[in-house]
Design a protein that fits this description.
With 463 residues, this protein is mainly alpha-helical. It has helices at residues 17-30, 46-58, 74-89, 94-105, 107-119, 135-147, 152-159, 166-188, 200-214, 220-235, 240-247, 253-269, 282-304, 325-333, 346-352, 366-372, 378-387, 395-407, 417-434; strands spanning 40-42, 70-72, 274-275, 278-279. InterPro entries: hAT-like_transposase_RNase-H, HATC_C_dom, RNaseH-like_sf, ZnF_BED_domain_contain.
Amino acid sequence: MHKRVLAFREFNDRHTAEHIYILIERILIEYNLVNKVFAIGFDNATNNTAAIPRLRELCGPTTLMGRFFHQRCACHIINLCVQDGLKALGDAMEVAKGGIRRIWANGQLKLKWKNYLNERNVKYVAFPKDLSIRWNSSYKLIRVLIRYKEHFPAFLKEYDNYILNSAHIDTCEKICNVLIFFNNATESFSHVYKPTSNEFMRELVNLAGAFNEFQNADYVSYFCTFMKEKFLKYYSHIPHIYGIAFILDPRYRLSNLEQCYKFYYQSFYGDFPMYEDNPIDPQSEYNEVSSLFYSLFNEFRAQYGNMPPPPTQTSSSKGKGLFKSAFGNLMKKAKTTHTTEQSTINEIALYINYEVEFVENEDFDVLKWWKSKERTFPILAWMAKQVLSMPVSTVAVEQEFSSAGNVLTKSRTCLSAESLETLICYHDWLKARRRTQELSLIPSQDFMDESTDGGSTYAGDSD
């Protein structure tokens, strides 16, 4: 996959739907992209949403009459859910973070903390910065604190007369046991060089499993209630495009999708799900996505029907374990073979029965798989190219605003708008050439082991 910043324009007008539309229209026309847009992703700002109808009209006939044209940023929704939960906790986490702030604010105290750990042969790990616009910065901060739960309270009491007892740490640890699922989803949705739409259903199943597991747990049940309420505001019905993307991942396909819907809705609503007096039937949701999948195939077949016919032979191999957590357990229960559905579309029937071999924990490249199967599944390969290239979040876009903030500072404000756009675009294209655009989005696994101060540049949940 590729990502490029094409424009970074000055926007001095009021951020109304009309002005947003005019600016985007100008850029699409400039780059001759008006008839080449599959979907547009926005955050949850009202004016952004209000601009969608005119943008859909501008881009002309789109896939299935524009049904998938507007997509909401999943990371923003996760951020809203977690923020609601953290607010419900009140001061529960503030006591712990207050002790860490004392370390940040006092250089002498920080030095004593390092020496304190050194005397006990404990490795020093810097506390990451706690950024208000990034909920998972608090999560990462508390994770480091938990590593020092046997040392940090005693140190604060001895050197700073600050009371942080084991109960505070235990509370933070319980909260982190929940937040890890949201952090994993945020990072999964923030990739640049591999598709995220096919992983959306997997992460939602894991989140549903987390809600189900912790809804009656001591203390965190209250915390989860607020997050669950906000979560279902947006995902009481899963966007159908992500069900189609799930089907287009050869590891999952149709039969596993049905299992996912059943597990997801039963986790929230039980065996007889009801929401706002309207029944939510997992089977109906599955049937709707399945029908849309076939309709989308027919639309692509009409457009790309002159492709070479697929070969009749298929490859066969045994599937191996690949998944963990709630989604992993669900996949283990699913059948490893797929029965052929009654359909006159031979290519889909062939795909449903096509067995794929995986190695456990293998980093599967779904686009590479489809590239290698273009002759076998020509129409489905075109579908996959479009659907899987659609990002789940706007994280990569927001990173450019952070980059602009690093260019324009209080001591460097004389750059023209055109110069700033040139710098931002050139910097992004240079990183694209080096394939390093993702490094500033997803922190490395060694982030928590760094022994230098400074905050994460991860922007997965920026408002």
